[in-house]
Specification:
Blueprint (H helix, E strand, L loop, with lengths): L13 H32 L1 H16 L10 H5 L2 H13 L22 H4 L39 H18 E5 L6 E2 L5 E2 L5 E5 L3 H6 L5
Antiparallel strand pairs: 1-4, 2-3
Helix pairs in contact: 1-4, 1-6, 2-4
Length: 219
């Protein structure tokens, strides 16, 4: 981007370079990290959901050959309940604005709020309730589930983000528990909704027996 063309001038001016780079820093680091925070909060605050997710993970671990030492993509594809959980996290706590084709008058600042869609009772029954089972046999219509946008501007990192959260939750569920330091922490909403204390917590280590027998890893 800083290279010059044949005439000796820059291909991009500084403002264009900034416009291209800032979204990569924000979308590549900030939003996945905040989505992971909400995933850990929900899995820790819902014992029944935690147990169901843990049973699924332990079932996958038990099927491993004794020589396997790491998580495989085939195992990730078996995590049906965890995928529903992650979808519910992204519905309940949308962490990024969504962009569609719309002509905005010059000088306006616009942020389209995906929460308005994900919390619409006409689309999701009891939208305030965190319920991964709502994704059982349910495929949203276009425009009903938009944590990563829609159409030609759909987030190119959507699958990577979900993969990162899946791997994090896999290790967390099987090895740790979390206790919040501030139980009633407020939420700030800009640029993305997150606890004001960034989820300050105590991490308690407690290895799953089935996990200890079959895997070696470093965190």
């Amino acid at each position: 981007m800083v290279a010059t063309n044949e005439n000796g001038t820059k291909s991009y001016n500084n403002n264009t370079i900034i416009d291209l780079l800032l979204p990569l820093f924000f979308a590549g680091h900030n939003t996945p990290a905040i989505a992971a925070i909400w995933a850990l909060l929900h899995i820790s605050q819902n014992p029944r959901i935690f147990q169901m997710a843990k049973e699924e993970q332990e079932s996958i671990i038990r099927q491993r050959p004794s020589t396997q030492k790491g998580l495989t993509f085939q195992e990730i594809k078996q995590m049906k309940y965890l995928m529903k959980f992650i979808n519910e996290v992204l519905r309940r706590n949308t962490v990024a604005p969504t962009n569609f084709h719309y002509t905005v008058p010059k000088g306006w600042t616009v942020q389209i709020w995906g929460v308005a869609v994900h919390m619409d009772s006409r689309i999701y029954s009891n939208p305030q309730e965190f319920d991964p089972s709502r994704w059982d046999n349910y495929t949203p219509k276009p425009g009903e589930f938009i944590p990563f946008g829609l159409g030609s501007r759909f987030c190119p990192g959507s699958e990577l983000t979900k993969l990162e959260i899946t791997i994090l939750l896999h290790h967390f569920i099987l090895n740790y528990k979390m206790e919040l330091v501030n139980q009633n922490c407020n939420v700030t909403h800009l640029p993305s909704p997150k606890p004001v204390d960034n989820c300050l917590c105590r991490i308690i280590r407690g290895l799953s027996k089935s996990y200890k027998r079959t895997i070696h890893f470093e965190i």
